[in-house]
Amino acid sequence: MARMVDVEDMSHVYVTDKGASLAVAGIHLSVEPGEFVSLVGPSGCGKTTILSVIAGLIQPTSGTVRIRGKPVNGPSAHVGYMLQQDYLFPWLTIWENAMTGLEIKKQVTSGSQAYVRQLLDQMGLAGAVNQYPSQLSGGMRQRAALVRTLAAKPDLLLLDEPFSALDYQTKLTLEDLVLETLRSEGKTAILVTHDLSEAIAMSDRVIVLGRNPGHIRRELHVPEPIRRALPLQAREEPGFHRLFRELWRELQETEGGEVDAEAEGR
Ligand SMILES: Nc1ncnc2c1ncn2[C@@H]1O[C@H](COP(=O)(O)OP(=O)(O)OP(=O)(O)O)[C@@H](O)[C@H]1O
Predict the structure, then answer these.
(1) How far is the CA of 20 from the centre of ligand 1 (A)?
(2) Ligand 1 centroid vs 123 CA: distance in angstroms?
(3) Could you tell me which residue ranges the ABC transporter domain spans (predicted)?
(4) How many angstroms separate the alpha carbon of residue 44 from the centre of ligand 1?
(5) Maximum Cα–Cα distance for the chain, whole Å?
(6) What was the pLDDT predicted at 155?
(7) Which atom of ligand 1 is least distant from the CA of 46?
(8) Please, are residues 123 and 137 in contact by the beta-carbon 8 Å criterion?
(9) What is the pLDDT of residue 185?
(10) How far apart, in whole angstroms, are the C-alpha atoms of residue 44 and residue 62?
(11) Mean pLDDT on 24-45
């Protein structure tokens, strides 16, 4: 079976009126179907740039990017993108928001409606379908945004700090819920996060980036008991804190390693 994501020797240069700047260089990244991979690193090391290139939102300056063996030429229905902000339409109900992608693609069928209903149920939103985003908490809105992303049945999910605007308790609850859903659906995911504890608890593999220009410094495989558990439980597993410290040290060594300081020692 083809790899889900194959990035080979990719670099990206941003050109602005102030000149050209090399954001990332020499990026090699492969992700297998069903794998959950996190990208961590100091601010400006190119995490969002890498996700945007994989999503087909920006073209790499050099190198190749393939999804399921096919070169990426632009945004694809096989790839879902979820951001820190939920971007729900305030004038639509949660149900209407969840259905927008399918409406635009004219894929509203009784089957797709049933699938969205099942996802809303799984995300604990069955009672909120007729409510508007402003009537919901931040965590509920992020869950609704995830349902909308999953409704299109993407094979690959790109998650750019989707939990960072939430309070700590909501974030922990949502991590479990999201990972459980993605696992049951057999999805592949790449998560960008500043929270090392979240990266370890959610992932099969954590990729540490450095900057100037953005490059991959190291890759850590999360061992079996931690990897199998859901995030809340994973934090209790032996070996979790050792891995945390290893990642922390790695990031401290990167120039200006700014990581979520409150995450230290969790
Ligand atoms: N649209 C753009 N135009 C010019 N430069 C950009 C643009 N987007 C990002 N950059 C630059 O590219 C580099 C990588 O940025 P990117 O946003 O990918 O990093 P990041 O690791 O996601 O950062 P953060 O953790 O702060 O979100 C940075 O130096 C940034 O200033």
Answers:
(1) 13
(2) 32
(3) 5-238
(4) 5
(5) 54
(6) 92
(7) 18
(8) no
(9) 87
(10) 19
(11) 96
Q: How many Å lie between the centroid of ligand 1 and the Cα of residue 221?
A: 26
Looking at ligand 1, which residue's alpha carbon is closest to its atom 5?
14
Please give the pLDDT value at position 256. 52
Ligand 1 pocket: which of 13, 17, 48 to mutate (most atoms <8 Å of CB)?
Answer: 48
Whole-number Å distance, alpha carbon 193 to ligand 1 midpoint, is 14
User: What type of residue is 250?
Assistant: E
Ligand 1: lining residues by beta carbon, under 6 Å: 14, 16, 21, 23, 41, 43-49, 214
Q: Distance between CA 170 and CA 179 in Å, rounded?
A: 14
- Bridge partners of 79? 156
What 3-state class would DSSP assign to 207?
strand
Most confident range (mean pLDDT) of 125-134, 144-153, 160-169, 253-262 is: 125-134
Whole-number percent of the chain with pLDDT over 70: 95
Question: In 3-state terms, what secondary structure has residue 152?
Answer: coil
The secondary structure element, H or E, covering residue 146 is helix 138-151
Least confident of 61-65, 101-105, 172-176, 255-259: 255-259
Report the pLDDT value the prediction gives residue 82, as an integer from 0 to 100.
Answer: 85
Sheet of 36-40: strand order equals 79-83, 156-160, 188-192, 36-40, 205-210, 215-221
